[in-house]
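Intended use. Records like the one below are meant for learning the mapping from a protein sequence to its folded structure. Do not use them to infer anything beyond what is encoded.
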Amino acid sequence: MAIITISRELGSGGIPIAHAAAEKLGYTLVDGEALRKIAGKFGLTEEAFEQADEHPPAFVAEKDFSLLVNLHRIELMILDYALKGDVIIYGRGGQDLLKDIKSVFRTRIVAPFEDRVERWAEREWIDPELARFLVRKSDQQRAGFIKYYFDRDWEDPLDYDLVINTQRLSEGKAVELICSGVSDKNLVEEKSNSKRILSDLIMCKKAEISVLSLQDIDGQHLSLSAENGTVTVSGHVHSKEDHAAVLDAVAKTESVGNAKDKLQVISYRQEPDDH
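Structure written out for the chain above:
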């Protein structure tokens, strides 16, 4: 069956729905807990994982660069899970990360703000005013994460195949709808192409991490894409040395078959000294 992604609002009941759907389908649930367990294998400390996981940038250059590299590592973990198949990807911009995969069933769990505040206060045994602050902060943080890294409004219903309002529908009905929707023939028929595209995405993500990890090279002007084992590098760098270093890093990345060079070298113009 298809891959499922679940976008959720805090207090909407998304996590019990995700757990129940995963159990019913026999799927692996890829949530924060699952990713945290394997973070070390992908070069992430627990602290680094927590700082990068679903967080928008801090707008501090050095910190944002570190967050970006670690975000790519988290995305690589998600792609690795997706390649294995039969997974529910919970949050983490899964529907955006897998936007090129046609067999993804994109779902969203929502509820009115005050309902979510009440649920969160009851679940965490906290004051309703504190719950209100935490729910609002979570909404802003997750919306900012999606907008900054994927340039998308996370509330746009057209970006999802199924939106469930848990004020109106029970947990059981939500699970039923998800399990029924993921077996739709339009999604299943696309599954055969998914592994090839996912393999390319994984290769590209590894190459991106290799390039971003280079010292003293500005990676924000670079763009990488992959198809059939070939990674294409485009954009620009500021010197011939940077050009060579980027292509070398890509070529040496695990599983990269070929590196296609579309890079330009654009040097900063040096202003003449005043005499």
